[in-house]
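Next comes a concrete protein, fold included:
___
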Amino acid sequence: MRVYLEFAKKSFQNNIVYRMDYFAGVINAIVMIFVNLAIWKAIYEEEETLEGVQFKMLATYIVLSFLMQVLYIMDEYFIESKVRSGLISADMIKPINFRLYVFSYNLGTMIFRLIMQLLPALIISIFLFKLLPPFSIIMLTYFVISGLLGYLVLYNLNFIVWVSSFWFYWTFSLVTIKDAAVMIFSGALIPLWFLPQGLVDFIKLTPFDSIFYTPIRIYLGMVPENEIVASLVKQMIWVFVLFGIGQLLWRAATKKLVVQGG
């Protein structure tokens, strides 16, 4: 396990080298939050509520959504670059678990973004956008747990797309389609309560709402306390299901290993 912590540490250190990315990330998050809140403010106009949702609650949802997006950014082409360069063959013969290696790499990046980007952006957002506090410490704890599970759901969904690089020379199109689906169906772009009920019912049968929508609704107190555990269990189920699918694809990929360009 120590070796994987070293991988995460190295990833963290690599991100520190690019300090301008740190400042750009914080500024970009604040600008995107400001622009989206301005758009929603125009939609609300003088109304206090829309579809039964107060603007302050929507504003908090938007802020949390963009802050979580900052935290959830991953290297979409880490595996593809190794496959296309031929370095994957060297990684395969090393005495390490490649899946844990990839996860450790992205974990280091996430910790960097948590400390260097998310926390500064959060502090600024609290004062600049009047972020609503959580209903209670317990709800905040549930939110953090749900947010971590949301990250794992997204990571395992991403891994399924990433490992497809063993069959596709370029995965840009697949990544783009996946990103669009996540932005729309996870509630990252538009809260699901504004979508048609039939579509929402369908989305709840997929892992998408477990990524952003569920954690933020828990923070806002929109999930009844007696249903929170069920929501967390649903997230955990999707983590295991997507992990299982990714494992099957990974085993098939290792048997098929055809290195492009090496």
